[in-house]
Write a structure and sequence with these properties.
The complex is a heterodimer. By secondary structure, chain A is mostly beta strands. Chain A has no helices and 11 strands. Chain B has no helices and 11 strands. In chain B, 36% of the residues are buried. The chains are: A mainly beta, B mainly beta.
Chain lengths: 122, 107
């Protein structure tokens, strides 16, 4: 079974740092681009970042650029999101998701992890 | 960034009803449009990709259509498990964006 499991969330003060992990099983992480998507409490989904299969290409939403860093360790089948200079508006559930592109150049996010809650508050 | 606007934002319906949710893009995105279902406290689940392709394992009562700027998700006969929030997402631009969501609840 293809599965993603996030960890590393918690309560952090404004200006602090946190590193999220996303452990993959049931597939080889190195075969896929991967994404982080977040959802503030009671709000919609917002794309955060993506990374290509070997980690050489990364992209970020403007709201996190320069503060967040996505990375991966394919040997450990794990995706990461290093979050620095955290702000109250970064409070959200963070989901990792696999990028699937087996239908032309159309990509879709499947599956998603269960999410990990990050709360930024003093 | 490409904006996606869903309508309605919320919808009440009964088991057995036919329901349609609309997603409008701020520019043409061809058929680079996916639909997800999310239940409270759970991760989103892919329903439809590339506007009209049913994801494996998703019931056939879900159909997607559209191209360019206007897209629809239709549920032909609502089942109790379908009461959830639905999101559209564009993958035309790698600055991925989602619609604001449509909450579907029981009348």
């Amino acid at each position: 079974e293809v599965q993603l499991v996030e960890s590393g969330g918690g309560l952090v003060q404004p200006g602090g740092s946190l590193r999220l992990s996303c452990a993959a099983s049931g597939f080889t992480l190195s075969s896929n681009w991967m994404h982080w998507v977040r959802q503030a409490p009671g709000k919609g989904l917002v794309w955060v970042s993506r990374i290509n299969s070997d980690g050489s290409t990364t992209n970020y939403a403007d709201s996190v650029k320069g503060r967040f860093t996505i990375s991966r360790d394919n040997a450990k089948n794990t995706l990461y999101l290093q979050m620095n200079s955290l702000r109250a508006e970064d409070t959200a559930v963070y989901f990792c998701a696999r990028d699937v592109r087996d239908y032309g150049d159309y990509d879709r996010f499947d599956p998603w992890g269960q999410g990990t809650l990050v709360t930024v508050s003093s | 960034d490409i904006q996606l606007t869903q309508s309605p934002s919320s919808l009440s319906a009964s088991v057995g009803d036919r329901v349609t949710i609309t997603c409008r893009a701020s520019q043409s995105i061809s058929t680079y449009l996916n639909w997800y279902q999310q239940k409270p406290g759970k991760a989103p689940n892919l329903l439809i990709y590339a506007a009209s392709n049913l994801q494996s394992g998703v019931p056939a009562r879900f159909t997607g259509s559209g191209s360019g700027t206007d897209f629809t998700l239709t549920i032909s006969s609502l089942q109790p498990a379908d009461f959830a929030t639905y999101y559209c997402q564009q993958s035309y631009s790698t600055r991925y964006t989602f619609g604001q969501g449509t909450r579907l609840d029981i009348k």
